[in-house]
Write a structure and sequence with these properties.
CATH topology: Rossmann fold
Bound molecules: 1,3,4-trihydroxy-5-OXO-cyclohexanecarboxylic acid
CATH architecture: 3-Layer(aba) Sandwich
Shape: globular
Largest sheet: 5 strands, parallel
CATH class: Alpha Beta
Strand content: 15-25%
Number of helices: 5
Order of helices and strands: EHHEHEHEEH
Amino acid sequence: MKKILVLHGINLNMFGKRDSAQYGTATLQEIDDQMVTLGNQLGYEVECFQTNCEGEMAERIHRAHQEGVAAVVINAGAWTHYSYGISDALAILKAPIVEVHMSNVHAREQFRHHSVFSHVVKGQICGFGVTSYRLGMLAADALLKG
Ligand code: DQA
């Protein structure tokens, strides 16, 4: 069975406790449960991983390369806007990558408008809360099934 890896970056373990106007009230566990259920329905194994440590995220991405994961759905949180290290790690992957954000980053502060992952991801989904993640999973499925 193909695996889809769902990656969550810095501060995203605090979903449910962060600004609900931007991020809603769902916890990371609830988001992960939805991603596993949806991914399984689509015929994939789903693994979810969160870390607040940039090096751990890079190492998880390196392992994803070794494991040959089929696709990655990533919300890297604030790293999205400045981490060339995570961007370079993602660039190593052959698998398609979908970038997601709960909030509409383009309607927020200027620094959130730019993603340093833009050139390595297939596309970006933002502004729909947990639905951004679900759409990210559907996009990964569409990329895999052509
Ligand atoms: C976020 C948007 C980022 O700008 C922010 O730093 C986050 C969450 C989102 O899901 O909307 O931590 O990635």
